[in-house]
Amino acid sequence: MALNKERRIGRHAVLLLLSDESEGELERLRQLDWIGCKGKVGSMEAHKVVAAIETAAKKNGIIQPDLYRESHALYHAIMEALHGVTRGQVQLGSVHRTVGLTFAVLRGNPYENAQEGDWIAVSLYGTIGAPVKGSEHEAIGLGVNHI
């Protein structure tokens, strides 16, 4: 059950997120039989961030919407990534803060053995702070979960 160094899904999700050449990065990841997408979301409500990422993952065929285990795995990866961005307190508007984030979602098998199955990674990067322009700072988060 060795984790292949070249197939670290969390690392690749962060690299995709920060890449200025997302299409080239996605094409390279497709050669590993992985699928991913990238998008943006801004909100004062955490559930809107979750919804935007879930919608992008479904629209891009990363998860099958009719399989609960896939939606559930994605949800946990999103929440783990949000914990990083919000420093452990997944609250936004209720404590007067907002986020402007770029996100990446990546699905694939990070192991040498194909029977290990797919994992999903969600990476978030952007700003968080008071809902006043100029009162924000950078933040990043990563969540990885098995499907």
Automatic annotation (TrEMBL):
<dbReference type="InterPro" id="IPR036482">
    <property type="entry name" value="Regulatory_HutP_sf"/>
</dbReference>
<dbReference type="InterPro" id="IPR015111">
    <property type="entry name" value="Regulatory_HutP"/>
</dbReference>
<keyword id="KW-0010">Activator</keyword>
<dbReference type="Pfam" id="PF09021">
    <property type="entry name" value="HutP"/>
</dbReference>
<keyword id="KW-0369">Histidine metabolism</keyword>
<keyword id="KW-0694">RNA-binding</keyword>
<protein>
    <recommendedName>
        <fullName>Hut operon positive regulatory protein</fullName>
    </recommendedName>
</protein>
<keyword id="KW-0804">Transcription</keyword>
<comment type="subunit">
    <text>Homohexamer.</text>
</comment>
<dbReference type="GO" id="GO:0010628">
    <property type="term" value="P:positive regulation of gene expression"/>
</dbReference>
<comment type="function">
    <text>Antiterminator that binds to cis-acting regulatory sequences on the mRNA in the presence of histidine, thereby suppressing transcription termination and activating the hut operon for histidine utilization.</text>
</comment>
<dbReference type="InterPro" id="IPR023552">
    <property type="entry name" value="Regulatory_HutP_bacillales"/>
</dbReference>
<dbReference type="GO" id="GO:0003729">
    <property type="term" value="F:mRNA binding"/>
</dbReference>
<comment type="similarity">
    <text>Belongs to the HutP family.</text>
</comment>
<dbReference type="GO" id="GO:0006547">
    <property type="term" value="P:L-histidine metabolic process"/>
</dbReference>
<keyword id="KW-0805">Transcription regulation</keyword>
